[in-house]
Design goal:
The complex is a heterodimer of chains A (230) and B (262). Chain A is an all-alpha fold and 230 residues long. Chain A is built from ten helices and no strands. Chain A is elongated and about 60 Å long. Chain B is elongated, with a radius of gyration of 23 Å. Chains A and B meet through α1 and α5 of A and α1 and α2 of B.
Chain lengths: 230, 262
């Protein structure tokens, strides 16, 4: 493929990302939903933890994680997990939506490389997820109070990007499976729940029982979460 | 081979040679404007930006959509969306156009203008090769140089509309619309020995049936036909003598009437 063609493929990706973002933003109620609802999903962990510990700091939590502040732990974890969810669900569901809407055939019969379309969708997902994650982090910090000390920001962003790339790899494979079997719910829920369980974002990894704790150490998102928590 | 390209070895070039109108209005992004839709597909079809800008302006103008180009497609009528779908298929100026039911669901006057646009502008003026699927026989008759009949996934005949209609022979067609009151109309037509062939359309639960009967010298048989139906308790609602159409050919070839007659 020559350089001109690379540029045209890149433009197709960027256009796909732009189209996805425009379409998403034209459903304002969904924008509000995704900006606010995750706070309600996070709240039970924090409220229950606060009730059990009687505050925001726990000695035993500190022994397991290195930080006694379980509230900040949960807020950072859930913000990062938004990327995992987006990578796993975003591309596959987006293709499925195109299929339901009747536009999938039209984009697949174009001469553009299919990877360019997937990449564009992944890019828009990442941008939208960052947008929502920032809002969620800000709101959660405001409501529950997160004590964050920013160090090595550039390195943190690099690790986040690495994690996104890795999970989009899984997401692309799942997209193919979804298009083949046309049933995204069961498969995605299974993979999502599995990752959510062995890569804890709202509880310490060491709290996991049996072999699951060991498995969690090998998850990229666990490494990233640990890094960001530190 | 499509447009000189091997579909297995050069699928990208084949796709670039083809413009498709399929699923009509559903194949567009309703939450984007007409211009945004066209800009997006221009990028997918790798049309250079400057060329795309000009093509989009020309096509919107050609389709009469320029005044509403920046409105969301969800606010468009079905006809406008169909026009936009056609404009989208022509964006990259393909040599071959695949049009799947381009007039499906459109009102008669707009269907007529779309047919004329496809035939006169795209086919005759711009010289595009057009493969059109339709179940409107009149549309196929008026628009196509060659017609293929497909039934149960198999092509049963391919030829010019005129040659296909000649398959009916020197026969004339007597079209009768009757209300089936006592006896089944198929029993009546079976007992008419001078018929070369016939076709009956109409839903099972509906007592009104349309019968197309093929025979020579219709005039000499009309009296007998009317009497046969009256004696069988069928009420004749209308009667006309017609020239054979492609629908008659379809009935002759397949033995079944077109499903969407009613």
């Amino acid at each position: 493929m020559n350089i001109d063609n690379w540029i045209l493929e890149l433009k197709a990706s960027l256009s796909t990302a732009k189209k996805e973002i425009l379409v998403n933003l034209r459903y304002p109620l969904w924008v509000v939903f995704w900006a606010i609802m995750p706070i309600f999903w996070l709240a039970p962990f924090i409220l229950q933890g606060r009730a059990l510990v009687g505050g925001r700091f726990s000695e035993s939590f500190g022994e397991l994680t290195g930080t006694k502040d379980f509230i900040t732990f949960a807020i950072i974890g859930s913000s990062l997990y938004a990327y995992v969810m987006s990578a796993l669900w975003g591309t596959g569901l987006s293709l499925r939506r195109e299929q339901w809407g009747g536009t999938l055939e039209m984009i697949l019969i174009s001469p553009c490389n299919k990877f360019s379309i997937l990449f564009g969708k992944a890019l828009s997902d990442s941008i939208l997820t960052s947008f929502y994650a920032i809002i969620q982090f800000a709101l959660a910090s405001l409501i529950f109070g997160a004590m964050v000390k920013v160090e090595n920001l550039g390195f943190a962003i690099s690790v986040v990007l690495l994690m996104i790339l890795a999970f989009y790899g899984i997401g692309f494979v799942l997209s193919g499976v979804i298009l083949m079997y046309k049933e995204p719910g069961a498969l995605l829920n299974f993979v999502d729940t599995l990752i959510y369980t062995i890569c804890p974002v709202n509880y310490p990894l060491r709290a996991l029982m049996l072999f699951l704790g060991s498995a969690g150490y090998y998850m990229l998102s666990t490494v990233l979460d640990s890094f960001c928590q530190e | 081979m499509v447009n000189g390209y091997d579909v297995l070895k050069e699928p990208g070039k084949v796709r670039a040679s083809i413009g498709v109108v399929s699923s009509g209005e559903r194949s567009l992004y309703w939450k984007l404007t007409a211009r945004e839709n066209l800009e997006y597909f221009a990028r997918l079809y790798k049309v250079p930006d400057q060329v795309a800008k000009r093509r989009i302006r020309e096509l919107l103008n050609l389709m009469g959509l320029e005044d509403r180009a920046d409105e969301l497609v969800e606010k468009y009528s079905s006809g406008m969306r169909q026009k936009l779908a056609i404009a989208r298929a022509m964006l990259h100026d393909p040599e071959v156009l695949l049009l799947d039911e381009p007039t499906l669901g459109l009102d008669p006057s707009f269907s007529k203008s779309i047919r004329s646009f496809i035939r006169e502008e795209l086919n005759k003026k711009q010289g595009k090769t057009i493969l059109l699927t339709t179940h409107y026989m009149e549309e196929a008759d008026k628009m196509c140089d060659r017609v293929a009949f497909i039934t149960k996934g198999r092509i049963v005949a391919v030829d010019t509309p005129e040659r296909l209609k000649n398959m009916i022979g020197k026969n004339e067609v007597l079209k009768l619309v009757v209300e089936e009151l006592r006896e089944s109309v198929s029993n009546v037509v079976k007992n008419l020995p001078f018929l070369d062939d016939y076709g009956i359309t109409g839903m099972e639960q509906n007592s009104i049936k349309t019968i197309r009967m093929y025979m020579k010298n219709v005039d000499s048989h009309i009296q007998e036909i009317v009497e046969s139906f009256s004696n069988a308790g069928c009420r004749i609602l209308s009667l006309s003598v017609e020239k054979p159409t492609l629908e008659d050919v379809f009935i002759k070839l397949t033995g079944e009437a077109l499903r969407d007659e009613y």
